Structures are given as C-alpha cells and as structure tokens.
Protein: Aromatic amino acid aminotransferase apoenzyme
Amino acid sequence: MLSTLKPRPADKILELMALYRDDPRDTKIDLGVGIYKNADGETPVMRAVKAAEKQLWETETTKKYTALSGDPAYGDAMKSLVLADSVDHARVGAIATPGGTGAIRQAFELAKLANPDVTVWTSNPTWPNHVSIIKFMGLKNESYAYFDEASCTVDFDAMMESLKGVKAGDLVLLHGCCHNPTGANLTLEQYGLVADLIIEKGATALVDIAYQGFGDGLEEDAAATRLLASKLPELLVAASCSKNFGIYRERTGCLMAMSETAEQTPVTQGTLNFLNRQNYSFPPDHGARLVTMILNDDVLKADWMAELEEVRLGMLGLRQQLADELKRLTNSDRFDFIAGHRGMFSRIGATPEEVMKIREDFGIYMVGDSRMNIAGLNSKTVPLLAEAVAKICK
Ligand code: PMP
Structure:
C-alpha cells in the first residue's frame, strides 16, 4: 500500500528554515518562520505560563479524560477572551482543538456537515495552510481580492467586488486581526460592510484569530470578531493560543460556533463534540488548562497581559524603526506601510527575484512572496535589512 504513495512537495517555509540553517554566514537573519522571537532571537516560555505549569504540577491529581469538548471551563474562558460580551454566551458552542489549525480544520468539517456543497472563500493571499486544508478535504475554494501589491495595503473595493460572487451557504474566511501573510488589515468600518454583505448573501463567516494581542492590543484585536458576532446571525471563530501565550508546541486552539438562537446551541455543541470524537476523540488538555488557569487568576492574567504588551510594543517599535530607516535611505515614503501594518508579518511587495537576491547577497531570509517576520529583527539588524531592501528593491 505504502509503495503507491507519491512524494509531496516540501513546505516552502520549512524548506526556507533548512536553507537558513545551512547558511554559514554569521550575519544571517531569519525572517521566515512564523514564531515570535525576542531581541536575542529566543522564544521564551512566558512567565505566567511557567507559573501556571508549576501550580499545575503541584495540584493536578489525575490525568483522566476531560470531556469531548475539552474542559468546558476552557471554552468559557476563550469565549470571554475573544467574544467578551458581544454575544450571549448561551448561543456559543466551543471545543478545544489541537492548535488554531485544529480549530480551522474542525470549522471546515462543521461547514461540510451543514452544507456538503459549501465553497470556502479565502483572501488572496492568505495563510497557505487554509487553502491546502480546504483542497485536501475536497471542498471548493474561491479567493477574494485583498492585497494591493503596489501600495501594500488592502484593496477594499476589489475585495467587495469579488465577494459579490458569494452564494447562500458559503463560508467566508476572514482574518480577525494581524493578517497573515500581508500585515494589512481591514478597518472596523470595513469589517462592518463585509458583515452586511455576508448577511445579504446568506453566507456564514469564519474568523481565524491567531494573533490577538499582537496588533493594537488584546481588546482592540478582538474588536472585529466582536463586531461580526454582534451583527451576524451565525459565526464561526477559530482561535489559536500558540502566539499570544507562546505555547506553540502544546497545540492549544478553540473553535467557537455561534448559533442564531440559544435553543440551537445544544445541537451545535453536540455536533462539535461529535467532530472531536471522529477526528481525535478528546482534545489535548495541557495548554488549554494553562490558558484557563491564567485567564481565571487575576495575578497570572495581569502578568501575562504585561508580558504580551511588551511583545506587542517591541514589534511596533521595530516596524517604526524599519519604516524610518527606509524613508531615510530611499528618500521616499514608499515603505511607510510597514509602520501601518500590524502583527508579526509584513509583505513588502518585493519580487521573488529581489527576495532571492536579498537572501544571496545579505543572508537575509524572508518567504518568497516577500513576507517578513518582524519579530525576527532587533534594533541592530533593522539597519542591515533596510540597507538590503533599499539597495535591491527598485
Ligand atoms: N491561522 C493563522 C493565520 C496562522 O498564522 C496560524 C499559525 N501560523 C494559525 C492559524 C494556526 O496556528 P497553530 O495551529 O499553531 O495554533
């Protein structure tokens, strides 16, 4: 059986990691893979996570199964973190999932159960794994216009024009904040207009929120999701705790499904539980438990928020420094958008040839579509990157 398998193309970002590892230059800079790194290039365990782990080690008396949904306390904590009071929580079902990716996968599974003919709409570009999973599941995929390559901002008119093709029963995937890979985001007003269109079409929105707290702040980054929850009759939300709690390998995500009425919730929740049972039975607990402990403890929560805020402000500072440096070197405002982008990434509009030349000549590794991980920089490496970009990008 196994001999019938065909080799699969390697993941581009993982390939880039290998190239970086093999580059002997000690001046090399990795702006590829999507993890947060501090100024020393490290991804430390957050203080509140360490403290919660210590507490857990001391107090946990059993490792028996929790529930198919994961511990309901985790779902409640995530509803409060992401949705706050934008919706009656009795209308929202929730399951713990293996990472944000697991939540996205389960959201597609749910949509497929509800409408086997569903078309999933994704932004052009989007996180490549969205499209990969949709295709792997045999679902239909359409992309909607999103990024204007010339200005490196959102082309909202083009986006609305392409979303006119959405049909009743379709699923429209939106990034809740900190768009990956571009860094360019909709305004709250624009999210509202997209919501109106989704209502008009009779479609459902799926919000992927993987960077809450990395853009404008914890509350601000959830504002679009909350607006959608308050306007739309139904909503799916796939949240990841990988970045904002720094627990990447613990695989901690949550799928929330908001039904039109609280009466519908038991069936929605039961279907979510069923989907967990079919795909992996009980979801992982460790990361979810840490998140629940942190969010339900004032001291741990305050410390987590303070550390997350340091992370966010550090990235904003690097954005500003890079935009200023490029303004000085190019004598133009062409790269001002870098300071306006939010989150861990910016797509800077360089051609694949320019990206390659920056890699070869300067040992600076960004993804082929010119996505760079801002957190891969520090105040000393920003001038090196600015010099490379100013020299190579014409
Ligand atoms: N959505 C987006 C847009 C992402 O960038 C990521 C992580 N790269 C995820 C979801 C999923 O993250 P994870 O499965 O690691 O929680």
User: Anything to note?
Assistant: Residues 34, 99-101, 127, 180, 208, 210, 240, 242, 248, 253 surround 4'-deoxy-4'-aminopyridoxal-5'-phosphate (CB under 6 Å). The CA atoms of residues 69 and 95 lie 4 Å apart. The chain has two domains: 2-45+301-392, 65-296.
